[in-house]
Amino acid sequence: MFFERPETGEVAILVHVGADPAHEEADLREFEELALSAGASPAALITASSRLATPRFLVGTGKVEEIAAAIALHGAALVLFNNTLSPSQERNLEKELKCRVLDRTGLILDIFAQRARSHEGKLQVELAQLKHASTRLVRGWTHLDRQKGGIGLRGAGETQLEIDQRLISVRMGQVRKSLEKVRSQRGQGRRARQRAEIPTVSLVGYTNAGKSSLFNRLCGEQTYVANQLFATLDSTLRKLTVPGFGPVILADTVGFIRNLPHQLVDAFRATLEETVEARLLLHVVDCNNDERQLLIEEVDKVLVEIGADKHPTLLVFNKADLLAEPGTVVERDATGKPWRVWVSAHTGAGLPELLSAIAELLGSDTLAPTLTLGPAQGRLRARLYELDSVMEETNDEQGNSVLRLRLPRADFMRLMAEAGVDPRPWLPQNTENAAESSAAEPNPTV
Predict the structure, then answer these.
(1) In terms of CATH, what superfamily is 11-102?
(2) Which of 101, 137, 302, 434 stands 20 to 30 A from 295 (CA)?
(3) Helical H runs in 368-408?
(4) What is the three-class DSSP state of 127?
């Protein structure tokens, strides 16, 4: 059995080891928010310089005594470190402090375990927890550490530890297999959307930037929203009609954070694939945060890690209603393309401009032809409606259907090939001769 420890520690002592703790206020605030999000009640914050770090405890023996005194004073049952601790450091600290010790990775894993709701989310969290626990099993068997070796004298400690490691290894294999099935199912859905040429737009950003609030406002949904870190763990996909472009799939994904544990990034690959495969990323930023540029850089680091850093990205500065002067609603880069939009998911301000910017960025390889279809072209007309490509339909004097379309170039070319029709009269013209030919018959009948 593992030695007796409290299941949870409501009253917690926070410990931060940094290069210059006096100038790391934002990091300390975020650490406190993480503790609150996990359900802890911070009683004291103890800071230490990383220059005095030791291999045994990470902090010096004097700081260990200070932490022990704070535990006794506040009756704390949990010590949280805003750093990554090695398994031996966690074990040494627990032995010295006589209470449970969690590092930043363990704290984030605990929050994720509380928030995961879907089957997929729970599997991903379990995989990350198993990876984290596999290196820390020995601390639960310290009462058997001194069993003698030799024939007939080997203690149960070594045997039980090996059993636990094997059980964890087997369970990790089962979870990975289940996640592969989830990934395969997601891949099928993604391929179906690709065949229908419906692009995915993924919301990314730092945790608590307002991604879910923006998602709800755009899609008319009621997904869980809270002013806390990691309120969203399970990705949600919804169809959204963008005026001037057509249907897209909007994906709400898990938020990122400083020093996001690598095993979490690895475990959440299935969810993050929606970001990797997206046609456009909406990088949601809390514009009311003084550290917003640093947070943007942290998100960019994670995007590099998952291979999504080359995707077209639109910065969405959310919570503009909290600023006295939010600035120009849409800002453009040197080429004239939108690169930043100021919005408020709370009030709805700037959302029409955001949708217009999305349509403009997605429409760079989109055609908007007007087709005149005769009565014999009912099948082609039906296919265009299946793809949600028809923006408007009227009838001319001869009874033909006049369709104003908006659809990806590849989709248009495929449909024209299936119908045996030359698509060139409807394509953007680059030569003078082609332009004259198009002018002679601006809307030919298929």
Answers:
(1) GTPase HflX, N-terminal domain (3.40.50.11060)
(2) 101
(3) 378-386
(4) helix
Classified as helix, coil or strand, 166 is helix
DSSP string, 81-113: ESSPPPHHHHHHHHHHHSSEEE-HHHHHHHHHH
- What pairing do the DSSP bridges indicate for beta strands 11-18 and 78-81? parallel
CA distances from 380 to 86, 130, 309, 385, 446 (A): 63, 53, 38, 9, 10
Fold topology of 368-440: Alpha-Beta Plaits (3.30.70)
Token representation of residue 166: 């094997």
Domain boundaries, the chain: 11-102, 197-364, 368-440
The string of pLDDT tens digits covering residues 79-93 is 999 988 888 898 899
pLDDT in tens, 203-220: 999 888 888 889 999 988
CA atoms of 318 and 297, how far apart (whole Å): 17
Q: Which of 361, 354, 342, 256 is nearest to 305 (CA)?
A: 256
CATH code of the region 197-364: 3.40.50.300
pTM of the shown model: 0.68
The full 3-state SS of 262-302, as one line of letters, equals HHHHHHCHHHHHHHHCCCEEEEEEECCCCCHHHHHHHHHHH
